[in-house]
Amino acid sequence: MFNSSSKMAKSNESEGVLRNHLAAGTQVKGDIITQGDIRIDGKVDGSITSKGKLVVGNTGEIEGDIKCITANISGIIRGVLHVSEMLKVQATGKLSGEVTYGKLTVEAGAELEGNYTISGKVKDISTSGQQQKRTSEKTA
C-alpha cells in the first residue's frame, strides 16, 4: 500500500522535468534561468532563459529578453523572444517586439506587433524527388 504511493511521488521526480511557477500577484525584477519548464502568472521585469517550456498565463506579463524551447502565450510579452521550436499564441496573448521562432500557431484574437522571423532550415522543394534543372535563356 505504501509502496504504490511512494512510487507515484518518485515518478514525478524521475521524469527529469523541473517545473517552476510564478503565481499571480508576484513581481520579479531580475533575470530567471531554469533548466526546466516555467509558468508565469505574475509579472517579470528582466530576462528569462529556460531549457524547457515557457507558459505565460492570462495574468502573466513579461518585459525583457526570453529564450526557451517552446512557448505558450496567453498573457503579455514585450521585448525580444527567441523560441527555438514551437510558439503558440492564444486568443488572449499579446506579443510586442522582436520574435524568432521555429513554428508559429496564432489563435484568432491574439495581438502581434513587431518583427517576426522564422529560424531553422528551409526545405528544398522539388517535384518527384528529383532536382529540377535550370535552363538559361540567351538574349541577343
User: Order of helices and strands, N to C?
Assistant: HEEEEEEEEEEEE
Number of strands: 12
Which value, in Å, is the CA radius of gyration?
21 Å
What's the number of helices? 1
Which whole number gives the mean pLDDT? 83
Describe it for me?
The chain is mainly beta and 140 residues long. The chain has one domain. It has one helix at 2-14, and strands at residues 19-22, 27-29, 32-34, 37-40, 43-45, 48-50, 53-56, 61-68, 70-73, 76-89, 94-106, 111-118. Strands 1, 2, 3, 4, 5, 6, 7, 8, 9, 10, 11 and 12 form a twelve-stranded parallel beta sheet that branches. The protein is globular, with a radius of gyration of 21 Å. The relative contact order is 0.11. Mean pLDDT is 83; it is low at 4-14 and 127-135.
Observed structural traits:
140 residues, 1 helix, 12 strands
Which helices and strands appear, and what pairs or packs with what?
Layout: H1 2-14, E1 19-22, E2 27-29, E3 32-34, E4 37-40, E5 43-45, E6 48-50, E7 53-56, E8 61-68, E9 70-73, E10 76-89, E11 94-106, E12 111-118
Parallel strand pairs: 1-4, 2-5, 3-6, 4-7, 5-8, 6-8, 7-9, 8-10, 9-10, 10-11, 11-12
Summary?
Helices cover 9% and strands 51% of the residues.
